[in-house]
Design brief:
The complex is a heterodimer. Chain A is of the alpha+beta class. Chain A folds into 3 domains: 4-291, no CATH class; 303-417; 426-484, Arc Repressor Mutant, subunit A. Chain A is 37% helix and 19% strand. The longest helix of chain A is centred in the middle third of the chain and has 20 residues, at 226-245. Chain B is an alpha/beta fold. Chain B has one domain: Amidase signature (AS) domain (Amidase signature (AS) enzymes, Alpha-Beta Complex), CATH 3.90.1300.10. Chain B contains 15 helices and 11 strands. Chain B has helices spanning 4-13, 18-31, 43-58, 101-108, 151-158, 175-181, 215-225, 265-280, 296-311, 330-341, 344-357, 362-386, 409-414, 420-425, 454-463, and strands at 38-41, 70-74, 112-117, 164-169, 184-187, 207-212, 251-255, 284-288, 389-393, 429-436, 442-449. Chain B has an 11-stranded mixed β-sheet with strand order 1-3-2-4-6-5-10-11-9-7-8, with helices on both faces. The longest helix of chain B is centred in the C-terminal third of the chain and has 25 residues, at 362-386. Classes of the chains: A alpha+beta, B alpha/beta. Chain A binds chain B through residues 47, 50-59, 86, 88, 90, 92, 95-98, 148, 275, 277-279, 281-285, and chain B through 76-78, 84, 86, 91, 94, 96-98, 100, 195-200, 202-204, 230-234, 306-307, 309-310, 312-316, 318-320, 330, 334, 354, 357-359, 362, 366.
Chain lengths: 485, 467
């Protein structure tokens, strides 16, 4: 058992390689449909993807444009000349016997991202480079045979390679999460983790604190959730520390993550490492880009999370609120539209509704389509400001905006239907106040207030609220009570 | 002997029909069977197409510049009507689901493919003896090789089975068999004709060209095939158009390193004879030096095998083509499939290519060869500052005997020594007949031009043709 005290004697160093599936309509080198979700096996495969004799790749310009956008999100310059290379190995999911990738001249050069941590600080992770490449197909193994599905073969990817700047499992998770934010906001990927749109390979090494050299690293491949990135890093830290404590050597190897057991296990060691015989791909001319072309494409990149954070700084929101709303790009777009035109008070209420509501109760497509947009949200927030709604009532209406029965309706109409409008008519509230004060059960409270125990006024306001079925404006009720005592 | 224009005229005038031209070509294919120039005939499809073209002619439709003209494609062009075998066991039963761009373009002009020609398996070789289905014999002497790798295409053209045939040229595979069989052979500028649908050998030097009986026919075929193809990113925008008039007084350089004692005396005589004809036509011919060509074979036999090892990686028995029976493991499936599907020369090149690309050797061999290749390109460019055209023999010897070089791959590779350098530089080069040896074996002269000067090369050859 490795205790925290022992763990504290070691430092962990992590570098992450992330494969991002690009959201193109067609594949990297063929006209086949790039969306293989729910498609029957081998139904979106062209002769090029199939590796027939005589077939030649035709580079998808849209994929290049998405890589250029990714470069902006990674604060990385775009190479004016980049090239494709062939990486050779034999496997049934690799139709040409080589993967077309960029080994020597990648399209995205060195950059960095700042990943926000839970304590409100950031970790800066440098990007070594990112290159374009094609995905392989998929093998499914049965007893004594395997089936090949090439639907995914030729899907365009960028592989983002980080420097080893990550030093904890929490940082690893933060990096993966922020990368996902950046790539989805920039429109580079659909970002569907369930369907493997982003996959992470986590390289972990461990060394005694203060050591000059990094330890031997193990690579945990193919993680497809932020949580598994975090857990795998944590597990590897403990596993490698335990080995070093016993005087054993960490082996350089590829390991797999078992999500059920929450453990990693060895898949292939460095001795089995293949020689990929990289060579330039003569079938694809170099990608040559001008400054103007790059600028034109990057100009179309919408606001990215770091810029949102900057814009919202004046609101003085809790960083957890900001990061929660950033989980959904359409929500961030909507919030910024409000922030841009309305005051902090109106805006902050909307932030809080979005950050506190459970994702299951919201329908983000309604935000995306504008059905739950600034007009309704601002009206709702202003109703609270104008004392027409209690904050509890406002939350209820916020959720109702997404509800099948009331979607598309205006907040005020919903409030009326649900009978949630606050009564701010002084006469009507005064009548209730008089009724409450006349009630014998209020006598003690009245006495206490008169003796200087002002807090008790809350009890009387509560009684007024109860009698008004929550619709009385509490501030007005309090004012009226004071006037009468 | 029929040229393309003769056939087109005959059909147009009603003297003949597409059907009778195809029938006659098929008849000649059968009667010349002993040369083993064809691996398959596509009789059924050819006759159907001929009838369709005849019907359209009857209707007065324009059926294209090659209406009813039969041709043969080397069996590494994907084409309908017969399997595309690349003369290998690997693809012995491979039926192409689509046709090569070059074949499509010719068919759009009314040409009719009547068969698929023999080659060295996957175009690896210079004699057609590496065909998995047996060698092709020389059109002039059946004890001699046809040359290669497009041996079958050269022989069917020389034997007048068809008026033209398609070939591929990676290091001499059109020019050398054209020389050995006394026909015109055209290797265009790299990128002039689409490679789409042609079984790849070496992506950076593969070119698509033709065999014809005269220059005019070659100009016509190349004019139709050339141009940008959206399916091949390396194709160039169409620049080829036959020249009506040759710029007089062309400056020609004969490369002295190609006329050493290692070159057969009769070959030298014929080349010198051709030079005299050029001079007589008002052109100047000077001796020039291109010392770096002595390294060209070394570059070629590093770069090309590297690309070959990569391009042949897809033949793994998983999706199509030959698959070994009775195997137990995946490694065994790959190993036995590729052992059975490839010929010795394929395996030799795959091994050399894998070696020069492997970690630790890549820099020393592959990159070094690519650097040397750049020097070769620069050296050519220097010469082209002064000269319009360069001239060499096509091969150091006339056609050699069947089996004569098979035991010695280096000797076989040396036959490519004249043709390999322009391939590495992506230059257009053509092989034109320059007479025959005393024993009656044809000899060819190679004319080399700057990139995109294909039309000038052909016009120059035309200016002395038949003289």
């Amino acid at each position: 058992m490795v205790t925290d005290e022992i763990l504290n004697k070691y430092d962990m160093t992590i570098g992450i390689e992330c494969h991002v599936q690009l959201a193109t309509a067609t594949k990297l080198f063929s006209g086949a449909d790039n969306d293989a979700r729910d498609k029957s096996p081998n139904s979106v495969v062209s002769p090029i993807d199939f590796g027939l004799p005589g077939m030649l790749p035709v580079l998808n310009r849209e994929a290049v444009n998405l890589a250029i956008k990714a470069g902006k999100a990674l604060n990385a310059p775009i190479a004016r000349v980049s090239r494709f290379d062939r990486k050779h190995y034999f496997y049934p999911d690799l139709p040409k016997g080589y993967q077309t990738t960029q080994m020597y001249n990648p399209i995205i050069l060195a950059g960095y991202i700042d990943a926000p941590l839970e304590d409100g600080t950031n970790v800066r992770v440098r990007i070594h480079h990112a290159h374009m490449e094609e995905d392989a197909g998929k093998l499914t193994h049965y007893g004594d045979y395997s089936l090949v599905d090439l639907n995914r073969a030729g899907t365009p990817l960028i592989e983002i390679v980080s420097d080893p700047d990550i030093h904890s499992a929490a940082q690893a998770k933060a990096y993966a999460t922020e990368l996902h934010h950046l790539m989805t906001y920039a429109g580079v990927t659909r970002g569907d983790l369930y369907h493997g749109n982003m996959r992470f390979d986590v390289n972990v090494s461990v060394a005694p604190k203060g050591a000059n050299e990094l330890g031997t690293r193990a690579e945990v491949k193919n993680l497809n959730s932020f949580r598994s990135v975090e857990k795998a890093a944590e597990y590897e830290f403990r596993r490698q520390v335990a080995m070093l404590e016993k005087g054993e050597k960490v082996v350089q190897e590829t390991r797999g993550w078992d999500d059920a057991k929450q453990t990693t296990s060895s898949q292939r060691s460095k001795e089995d490492a293949q020689d990929y015989r990289y060579m330039p791909d003569a079938d694809i001319p170099p990608i040559i880009l001008t400054d103007q072309e790059i600028a034109d494409i990057q100009e179309t990149v919408p606001i990215l999370p770091p810029e949102y954070r900057e814009k919202w700084q004046a609101l003085q929101l809790d960083s957890s609120v900001v990061n929660t709303v950033l989980n959904n790009a359409p929500v961030a777009v909507t919030l910024e539209a409000i922030n841009d035109r309305y005051d902090a008070e109106v805006t902050k209420r909307v932030f809080n509704w979005f950050s506190s509501a459970s994702a299951d109760d919201m329908n983000i497509t309604a935000v995306e389509s504008g059905l739950v947009g600034p007009r309704r949200l601002v009206e709702l927030s202003q109703m609270v400001g104008d004392n027409k709604l209690s904050s509890t009532g406002a939350k209820e209406i916020f959720l109702a905006l997404f509800n099948e029965d009331s979607i598309g309706k205006m907040p005020e109409d919903i409030a009326r239907e649900k009978n949630l409008l606050q009564v701010s008519d002084e006469g009507a509230i005064a009548a209730i106040v008089d009724e409450v004060l006349a009630d014998p059960t209020s006598a003690k409270a009245i006495e206490d207030i008169k003796n200087g125990n002002d807090k008790v006024i809350g009890f009387l306001v509560g009684q007024v609220m109860k009698k008004s079925q929550g619709k009385a404006n509490p501030a007005l009720a309090q004012k009226l009570i004071r006037e009468r005592i | 002997m029929s040229r393309i224009s003769d056939i087109v005229d005959r059909i147009k005038s009603g003297e003949s029909s597409a059907r009778s031209e195809v029938e006659n070509a098929l008849q000649r294919a059968t009667s010349t069977d002993e040369y083993h120039a064809l691996l398959s005939v596509t009789a059924e499809r050819a006759l159907e197409r001929a009838d369709a073209i005849d019907a359209r002619i009857k209707n007065g439709e324009d059926v294209g510049r090659l209406a009813g003209v039969p041709f043969v494609a080397k069996d590494n062009f994907l084409a309908f009507g017969a399997p595309t075998t690349a003369a290998s066991r690997m693809l012995e039963k491979f039926d192409a689901p689509l046709q090569a761009t070059a074949v499509e373009k010719l068919e759009q002009q009314g040409a009719i493919c009547i068969g698929k020609a023999n080659l060295d398996a996957f175009a690896h070789g210079g004699s057609t003896e590496n065909s998995a289905f047996g060698p092709t014999k020389n059109a002039f002497d059946q004890t001699k090789v046809a040359g290669g790798s497009s041996g079958g295409s050269a022989v069917v053209t020389a034997l007048d089975v068809v008026s033209f045939a398609l070939g591929t040229d990676t290091g001499g595979s059109i020019r050398q068999p054209a020389s050995f069989n006394g026909v015109v052979g055209v290797k265009p500028t790299y990128g002039m004709v689409s490679r789409y649908g042609v079984v790849a050998m070496a992506s950076s030097t593969d070119t698509i060209g033709c065999f014809t009986k005269d220059i005019a026919d070659a100009e016509l075929v190349m004019d139709i095939m050339s141009g940008r193809d959206v399916n091949d990113m390396t194709t160039l925008p169409d620049f080829f158009s036959p020249l009506d008039e040759l710029k007089p007084g062309q400056k020609i350089g004969i490369i002295k390193e190609s006329m050493t004692d290692a070159v057969d005396g009769e070959v030298q005589d014929k080349v010198n004879g051709y030079v005299e004809k050029l001079r007589a036509a008002g052109h100047t011919v000077d001796e020039v030096s291109l010392p770096i060509v002595k390294y060209a074979l070394a570059m070629y036999y590093i770069i090309v095998p590297a690309e070959v090892s990569s391009n042949l990686a897809r033949y793994d028995g998983i999706r199509y083509g030959h698959r070994a029976e009775g195997v137990q493991t995946l490694a065994e499936l790959y190993g036995r499939t590729r052992d059975e599907g490839f010929v010795t020369e394929n395996k030799r090149r795959i091994m050399i290519g894998s070696y020069v690309l492997s970690s630790g050797y890549f820099d020393a061999y592959y990159l070094q060869a690519q650097k040397a290749r750049t020097l070769l390109i620069d050296a050519y460019e220097d010469l082209f500052k002064t000269y319009d055209v360069l001239l060499t023999p096509v091969a150091p010897t006339p056609a050699f005997g069947l089996g004569e070089n098979t035991a010695d791959p280096i000797k076989m590779y040396l036959a490519d020594i004249m043709t390999v350098p322009p391939s590495l530089a992506g230059l257009p080069a053509i092989s034109v007949p320059a007479g025959a040896t005393s024993a009656g074996l044809p000899i060819g002269v190679q004319l080399i031009g700057q990139r995109r000067t294909d039309a000038n090369l052909l016009a120059l050859a035309k200016s002395v043709e038949g003289k």
